[in-house]
From TrEMBL:
Residue ranges of domain HTH arsR-type in the record: 8-102
Keywords recorded for this protein, A-Z: DNA-binding, Transcription, Transcription regulation
SUPFAM superfamilies for the chain: Winged helix' DNA-binding domain
Record has Kinase as a keyword: no
Protein name: Helix-turn-helix transcriptional regulator
Length: 102
């Protein structure tokens, strides 16, 4: 078996680690999971569903959007968020399976 760094470019490993670091926060992981189940949601829908203060939800949404995990668009006065990388749901599912076996 080849060493990991010879199979995968170190830049890819660094990017993957940075992505996992962003997802490591439980509230951000919950937001990604929620948006994986819904096509799009407003900030208000997100913070009410997850029972978060609006300011905290907004901070997490900005972080996720800045990392390219979420995208947003505005309709009138409302900003809608959606998941930009649907494959992240596979990561969440895999992590959930691992936790079930521990």
């Amino acid at each position: 078996m080849k060493p990991l760094l010879s199979r995968v470019e170190s830049k890819k490993v660094d990017k993957a680690a940075a992505m996992l670091k962003v997802l490591a926060h439980p509230k951000r992981l919950a937001i990604v999971d929620l948006l994986g189940k819904e096509e799009k949601m407003t900030v208000t829908e997100i913070y009410r569903t997850l029972d978060l203060p609006q300011a905290i939800a907004s901070q997490h949404l900005i972080t996720l959007k800045d990392r390219g995990i979420l995208s947003s668009f505005k309709v009138g006065t409302k900003i809608y968020y959606s998941l930009s990388i649907p494959k992240l749901l596979d990561v969440i599912d895999s992590l959930e399976e691992c936790c079930d076996t521990m």
